[in-house]
What we know:
Largest sheet: 4 strands, mixed
Oligomer: single chain
Strand order of the largest sheet: 2-1-3-4
Distance between the termini: 13 Å
Amino acid sequence: MKHHSLPSISQVWTLGIKELRSLWRDRLLLLFVIWAFSGALYTAAKGAPDRLHRAPIAVVDEDQSMLSQRIVSAFYPPTFKLPDAISLTDVDPAMDAGRYTFVMNIPPDFQRDVLAGKSPAIQLNVDATQLSQAFLGSGYVQSMALGEVNEFLQRERINTTMPIELAMRMRFNPSLDNTWFMGVMELINNVTMLSIVLTGAALIREREHGTIEHLLVLPLKPSEIMLAKIWSMGAVVMLATALALQFVLRDALAMPVTGSVGLFLVGCALHLFATTSMGIYMGTVARSMPQLGLLMILVLLPLNILSGGMTPRESMPDIVRFVMNAAPTTHFVSFAQAILYRGADLSIVWPQFAAIAVIGVAFYAGALRHFRAAVNTMQA
Length: 380
C-alpha cells in the first residue's frame, strides 16, 4: 500500500458517512453526547457551589426585641430564604429532618445585654452535610448579625469618609453571575472529552467488530481512514456545540454572547482537529474501551485542570505554564473566553488560532504515523 499519494476526497467522505451511521446505531453513546451538551451543561452551571443561593434558615427568637427583629430581617432572598420562626424544641427535629441548613438561636435579654456592654452569644446551628453552603453561609451569618448589632449601637448607618474613592465597574459580567462562567467552561471541557471519546471509540469499535480488517483489504490508505473518523466525529461535536451555545447557554442560562459565534466555531474546528487526532492515537494504543477510559483519565484531568479554565494560569508555576503551551485546550480556553465574554475579534485571538493550528498539525502527524504502524502490524 502506497502512503505518499493524497487521500481521495470521495473515499474520505464515504467512510465518514459510515462512521456517522455507526454512531447512530450506538444509541448509548449517542445519548451520552446529547446529555453532555444539554443537561450536563445546565446542571454544571446551576450547581456551582461558589456562592449561597436561597439557603434555608430558621430563627429561634427568645428575645423578641427591636435588635433581634433587625437581625432576623437581615436575611432575605436570593442569598437566603425568608427565615422561619420556630421554637426551641423544634430545632433538633428540624435539623435532623434536613429542613434547614442554618438555625439561629437569639437568647433572652439579648438587646439588654448588648446595651449594657456585655458580650451575649448567639447560637448558630449548621447542617454541615451541606458542606459548601455550611462553609460559606456561616461567615455570611456572622458578618450580617455583627453588622446589624454595630448599626444598632451607633443608632445610624456608619458613613466612613475614605481618603480616596474607588469606583468599581464590572465589565463582561456586571451581575457577577457565576453560571455564565461555569456553563462555558463545562462546554469547553465537554468538547475536548467528546472529541477524544468518539474518535477513540470509533477505532476500538471497528477492532472489536472485526471491520478494521475489512477496511485494510480495500484500496484505502491509513490517512483516508483516519481523516474520515476525524471529520465525521468532529462534525458531530461541532453541531452539538452550536446547538448547546444557542439553546443552553443563550436561552436556558440567559448568557449574552458578545462575540462572533462563527469565529468561535472556526476556532472550535481547529481545536477538534487536534483533539480528534489525539483520540485516534489513544484508540491505537488502547485495546478495549476500558483501557481507553483509563487513558482518558490520565489525559483529560491535566488538560481540564491546567488549561486555565479552573485555575488562572498566572497562579501556576512557570514550568507548568510552559508545558501546557503545548496543549490545545490552553489556547482553546483563552480564545473562547475572549470571544464569548469580551467580544474579541480575529485581530486579537489570531495568536491562539495559529498556535492551536500548529499543535493540531503536530498531533495529526504523530497520530497518523502511529496509526500506520498499527496498520502494518495488523497486516503482518
